[in-house]
Design goal:
By secondary structure, the protein is α/β, with parallel strands linked by helices. Helices cover 34% and strands 22% of the residues.
């Protein structure tokens, strides 16, 4: 399994596209960890619309981007960890390509 960590803060304009790109992966052997830094817009409301068994959502204060990344890593359970920024997205087979490249 692969862990995908997304950190965000006030990203209501972008977070849905990011989440949907992960939901649309053909390979479902992943966990998606979203670490929100107590957004003051409606980011967390959007994130909560996409609750799944393989998605962990955390919203609490952090000390910046790297601290948030480290908090995401700490709760990861996958053999491999990847980061997907909240204004980025994966193409449909990105996880398959990533896993294939690890084992080649």
């Amino acid at each position: 399994m692969i862990s995908i960590v997304t950190i965000c803060y006030n990203e209501s304009k972008n977070i849905q596209k990011t989440i949907e790109s992960i939901n649309n992966q053909s390979n479902k052997n992943y966990e998606h960890i979203i670490k929100d830094g107590l957004s003051t817009d409606n980011t967390i409301e959007i994130v909560n619309k996409f609750k799944l068994a393989n998605r962990k959502i955390f919203s609490y204060e952090d000390k910046g981007i790297y601290n948030a990344m480290n908090k995401g890593i700490k709760v990861s359970t996958g053999k491999y960890i990847g980061f997907l920024n909240c204004d980025d997205f994966y193409y449909k087979n990105s996880i398959n390509i990533l896993i294939f490249s690890i084992y080649v």
